[in-house]
Every structure is written in C-alpha cells, then in structure tokens.
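User:
Hi there, any thoughts?
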Amino acid sequence: MANIGSNQFKNVTFPLVFQDHYFMLETSHEKDVWTVLQLKDGHLIIEVLKNDPQQNPSTQVTTNPTGIITVSDKESGKFLYKIRPKSKNTSIFGSINGEETKIKITDTEIRVGTNSFQNNTVTGFSVGIMVNKDGGMAMGCGLPKEIQKLVSG
C-alpha cells in the first residue's frame, strides 16, 4: 500500500498517469523512489528507473546536481515533466496543452492544477489518478494491454 498526499492506494500499481507517462512509486522512509514508463505508439519506454534517468529513443531525461529529473521530448525539445524525488513531498510539474501545470504531491494532498485529491482510498485499480492530454482527470482506471503484460508477468 502506498500513501500519497493523504490518499491511500491499495493494490494500485501506478498511483499517477500523466499523459501516457506511468508513475510507479516505491515506498521508502527516506525519499520517494519513482519509476516512470511511457507508452508511445504501442511501445513501452523506461524513462526513469528508481530515480535514475534512462537513455531512450523518445525522451531526453536529465538530472541536475540537486536531483531534480527533467524529461523533454527528443524530437521537439518540448518540456514534458519534472520530478523532485529527494523528499517525501515530491512535486511533479507537467505541461498540458502547452501550458505548465503543477502536479504537487505533499503529505496532505495530490493537486493537479486546481483539482485537489485528499483522503481518498483507491483499491484494486491498476491506476490511481489519470491526467489526460486535454487536462481531463479520472480516478481508479485500468491499464492498456501493453502495460498489463509487463506488470502481470
């Protein structure tokens, strides 16, 4: 079970999906440990593996000296998202429709733009909170078959 921003995710593989980027959180007492997968054209790409940037054909993933991970599109150079994994109060920043949208995860809430999620329990879904490309949101979702194969076997 993962506790993220006063929300409990029981048997939830990916607490957050942001525009086809699947954020998996490992519980740790010291810091958040994130693995991020991208689903692009039916292929899975590992962008971040346990807070370590991964070379891949789709995105440029870098980290600065303070540990902030920045991910941008390799072809266009457009900013996609940032993760601050060094604290238990991780912030994830992403871009929706070309505008930066703050996704902030603190000990009390998950905030996506002006939407706030507090004191929810999501049980047994593969995805906790999903943010789509148009900014639409859903809670308690399933996975595409490409990712289902990865996590089931």
